[in-house]
Amino acid sequence: MIAVLGLIVGVVVGLFVRPEVPAVVEPYLPIAVVAALDAVFGGLRAMLDGIFVDKVFVVSFLSNVVVAALIVFLGDKLGVGAQLSTGVVVVLGIRIFSNAAAIRRHVFRA
Amino acid sequence: MSDDDTPQNENAQNENARNGTPQNEVPANGTPTSGETPVGEKQELTGRQRLAAGLWPPRVSRAQLIVAVLLFVLGLGLAIQVRSTSDNSALRGARQEDLVRILDELDDRTQRLEDEKTRLGTQRSELETSSDQAEEARKQTQEKERQLGILAGTVAAEGPGITLTISDGAGAVESDMLLDAIQELRAAGAEAIQVNDVRVVADSYFSGGDGSIEIDGTKVAAPYVFKVIGKPEDLEPALNIPGGVVQTLEKEQATASVARSQKIVVDALRPAKRPDYAQSSSQ
C-alpha cells in the first residue's frame, strides 16, 4: 500500500512541482523510466509468486536503470544511439509483457 | 486485519479440508507437522491473496518503504518525462544528433534567407535607381514639352518684352504691314508673339486688308496690340530703326508706339494640332 502511495505521490510531485532535470540526465530519462517499469513489473510478479525479496528488487531496479542509461550513453558515443535505445525499449517491452502475462494469470487466473 | 485474514483462513480451511485435516485440529494436536502447516499455507497462497494482503492493511515494513521510495522515483521520472514530452517543444526530448541536424537545417535556411534578402535588396536598389532615372527623363520631357509648347503656342508664356500698339485712324494699315512687323520682331529674337487675341506661331498667316485683317482666319481690328516676349533692348531698336516698321507705319498715317516691360504675358493659346502627313523621322 505504501509502495502504491509512493508511486502516486511521485507522479503528483512530478506533475505539480516541475523539477528541473539536469541536461546531462535528460536524454536518459525516458529509457531509465522504461527500465524502472520493467523492474517494477518484475517485482510485482515476484510478489505474486511469493518470492519477493526487497533487496533483489532494489538491486534490479537500480541496475536496470543504470544499464539502460549506460547502453543509451554508449550508443550515443558510437553514433547508434537511436537504434540502441529502440532495441532497449523493445527488449524491456517484451519483458514487461511477459511479466504482465504472469501477473494476469495470478490476478485473473486466466 | 480481520477482513484480510478471512480469505486466508478460508483458504487455509480449504487446504486443510483437501488435506483431510480440519483446521482447528492443527493447534489442538500440537503434532510436529503443525509447525509446518502454516508454512505450507503461506506457500499455497494464491497471487491474488498476496496482492490483497500487500495492499490492504498498510504495513510499514522495510520492504514497503524501500519499494515506496523507488516507486516514488519512478513516478517522478514518469511525470517529468510525460510533461517534457507534452511540453509542445519538440526539441526538449530530442537527441543530440537530431538537434545537430535541426541546427544544420536552420543554418541552411538562414543562409538561404540571407541570400534571398541580399538579392531582393539589390533588386530594390536597382528599381529605385531606374525609377530615379525615369523620373529624371520625365522631368526633361516635361521641360521640353513646355519649351515646345511655347513655340507651338499651346501654352501661355510670360517674361520681359515689349508692347507694340498700332492705331489705325485712317484704315490704312494692311496685313503685309503687320506681317513686316512680325518678321522684324522675329528677326530681333522674339520668342512669343500675340496680336490682340491671336497667338502668332510658325504657321500663322495674314489675310485680308483695308481695315479687315485676319490672322489665322480670326478677324483682328485696330488698334493692333502686339505683345512680344524677347529681349526688350533688341526688340525696340529693331522696330525703331530708320526706315523700319514704325517709320513705315507713320508714313501711312498710322501711329505706332513701343513700350518696354519686364513682364509681358502672352496668354492667347492655339490648339495643338496633330500633323496629318508629316511624321517624325527620328526613330
Account of the protein in words:
The complex is a heterodimer of chains A (110) and B (283). With 110 residues, chain A is mainly alpha-helical. Chain A has one domain. Chain A contains four helices and no strands. Chain A has helices at 2-17, 29-49, 54-78, 81-108. The longest helix of chain A has 28 residues, at 81-108. Chain A starts with a helix and ends with a helix. Chain B has 283 residues and is of the alpha+beta class. Chain B folds into three domains: 2-59, no CATH class; 94-152; 157-266, 2-Layer Sandwich (Alpha-Beta Plaits). In chain B, 54% of the residues lie in helices and 17% in strands. In chain B, the strands form two sheets. A five-stranded antiparallel β-sheet of chain B has the order 3-2-7-1-8. Chain B has a three-stranded antiparallel β-sheet with strand order 4-5-6, covered by helices on one side. The two termini of chain B are 116 Å apart. Residues 1-43 of chain B have low confidence and may be disordered. At the A-B interface, helix 1, helix 2, helix 3 and helix 4 of A face helix 4 and helix 5 of B.
Key terms:
heterodimer; A: 110 residues; mainly alpha; 4 helices; 82% helix; globular; B: 283 residues; alpha+beta; Alpha-Beta Plaits; five-stranded antiparallel β-sheet; three-stranded antiparallel β-sheet; 8 strands; 54% helix
How are the secondary structure elements laid out?
The complex is a heterodimer of chains A (110) and B (283).
Chain A: H1 2-17, H2 29-49, H3 54-78, H4 81-108
Helix pairs in contact in A: 2-3, 2-4, 3-4
Chain B: H1 2-19, H2 25-29, H3 32-43, H4 47-55, H5 62-85, H6 96-152, E1 157-167, H7 175-187, E2 192-195, E3 198-200, E4 206-209, E5 212-215, E6 218-220, E7 224-229, H8 232-240, H9 245-251, E8 255-266
Antiparallel strand pairs in B: 1-7, 1-8, 2-3, 2-7, 4-5, 5-6
Organism (chain A): Streptomyces lateritius
Family (chain A): Belongs to the sbp family.
Transmembrane segments (chain A): 29-48, 55-74, 80-103
